[in-house]
Amino acid sequence: MVAANKGRPHQRLRTRKDLLQAAARLMRQGGKPSLEDVAADAMVSRATAYRYFPDIGALLAEASLDVDVPDAETLFAGETTQDPVVRLEIVDQALHQAVVEHEPQMRRMLAHAVTRSLDIPPGDAIPPRQNRRLPLIDAALAPARAQFGPAALRRLEYALALIVGTEGVIVAKDVLRINDAEARRVKRWAIRALVEAARKPNR
Amino acid sequence: MVAANKGRPHQRLRTRKDLLQAAARLMRQGGKPSLEDVAADAMVSRATAYRYFPDIGALLAEASLDVDVPDAETLFAGETTQDPVVRLEIVDQALHQAVVEHEPQMRRMLAHAVTRSLDIPPGDAIPPRQNRRLPLIDAALAPARAQFGPAALRRLEYALALIVGTEGVIVAKDVLRINDAEARRVKRWAIRALVEAARKPNR
DNA sequence: ATTGACATGAGACAAATGCCTCATTAGAAT
DNA sequence: ATTCTAATGAGGCATTTGTCTCATGTCAAT
Questions:
Q1: Do the beta carbons of residue B25 and residue B41 sit within 8 Å?
Q2: Quick one: pLDDT at residue B115?
Q3: Which of A178, B18, B26, B169 has its Cα between 20 and 30 A from that of A100?
């Protein structure tokens, strides 16, 4: 593995970027490129690719990762509503769309994230999974925070996180086998139900 | 691949079982056995292993699959309650426990299920993912079916399926990074909220 | 008991994976 | 401009993966 934070940052960033872009490009075209393909497309030697990524799976997963999910600020830029349900539906819409638009990458990413803890030596620290979901949920609820108690808010955010992320879309597709429209409908209903339940004084 | 339903069913089932058992045994011991290891342990030639499973991933995933989740009948055997919330919590408890008890296998299984649609030739049929969740949810709601309209029932079942399965446990662990107790608490709250929302006349 | 279809074992093969070393190159600091 | 070090390229190596062929063994039906 190449050094992390000294020496030649530019060069390192460039080759890293080239590798990820090549991987993304090849995946967009067709199935599962080999590390050799990626390295060749990035005009980088195979050894160098292994210096940046522990294995081909990690490379592909990370290349799948730069699906740009809008952040909270841009998502709520022109939005004036205070209604948490409306704002949550905006979040769900954005995430849902990102998933269906980049479904193969999202699936690969999820698979990698889910098994990462297995392939590292036991007793070693598990790198935290990157998380775009909670900040968005939090931002959606921000204007209405006063409506909930602190514990209820936390509980609500966690429950919502079970519904709005990648996994929800995948479950709807693979387990429930329903189409996008119905999946969206189910989630919207659930979101509203949870928010309203959290609004109640207690329990 | 070996024939599916003619010839010598006994022999086929035996070797298939031997392979799966060997894979399960080796996985229980340590990390990720190679197909060669599995074949050797099953006292079967490598070629034969490939005749039963398309690749090592499928073998390991299927070997992880025989985690016995109780079916609806045994789960509700001594149960007299009609309350759907209580019954749903029983289901959630059972599934949650099955996941945490066999976490590595469940993760492998999920990863395989999630990416299976990617590695098959495009345009080909996607084999349905096996589903233990909906029947259990359905059984939990069965005594209370009259309380819901048909559309509301469907919607409720789908929403619940987003919360109670494997994915929910994984999200709680990896994304929310909360412990089992809190995960259970969040899910119980969400389940109750959804059921009660579905009870209301409409919307 | 014999036959015929079916399952298996043995081994060859190309490709991919991950790891390694050593020489060369390119960037950063002086 | 020179120097030193970090990054790279080239290639080798052992292992694994997945596919194929052909000979052999074995089950089941007659």
A1: yes
A2: 87
A3: B169
> Given CB atoms, is A132 within the 8 Å cutoff of chain B?
no
Distance, CA of A63 to CA of A40 (rounded, Å): 16
Cα–Cα separations (whole angstroms), residue A202 to A86, B2, B189: 23, 60, 11
Fold designation for A9-65: Arc Repressor Mutant, subunit A (1.10.10)
**pLDDT lower than 70: segments of chain A:** 3, 66, 119-128, 201-203
B28 touches chain A (CB under 8 A): no
B15 C-beta less than 7 Å away from strand C: yes
**Rounded-to-5 percentages of helix, strand, coil across chain A:** 70, 0, 30
Q: What number of C-beta contacts closer than 8 Å exist between A and B?
A: 137
**What angle do the packed helices B150-164 and A180-199 form, to 10 degrees?**
80
From B10, B8, B11, B33, select the one nearest B22 (Cα to Cα). B33
Q: Sign of dihedral through CA atoms A124, A129, A135, A141?
A: negative
Q: Token digits for A104? A: 């193969």
What is the Cα–Cα distance from A136 to A71, expressed in whole angstroms? 7
- Determine the Cα–Cα distance for residues A47 and A36; give it in Å rounded to an integer: 10
CA proximity to A165, closest of A120, A130, A128, A119 = A130
What span, in angstroms and rounded, lies between the C-alpha atoms of A117 and A184?
31
With contact defined as beta carbons under 8 Å apart, do A56 and A34 qualify?
Answer: yes
- pLDDT, one tens digit per residue, over B39-76 is 999 999 999 999 999 999 999 988 887 677 888 999 99
pLDDT digits (tens, 9 = 90+) for B157-167: 999 999 999 99
Give the start-to-end residue ranges of the domains of chain B: 9-65, 68-199
Q: At what angle do helices A9-29 and A56-63 cross, to 10 degrees?
A: 80
Strand D contact set, beta carbon < 7 A: A 2-3, 6-8, 11-12, 14-15, 43-48, 51-52; B 8-11, 34-37, 46-47, 50, 54-57
- Give the separation between CA B148 and CA B163, rounded to whole angstroms: 20
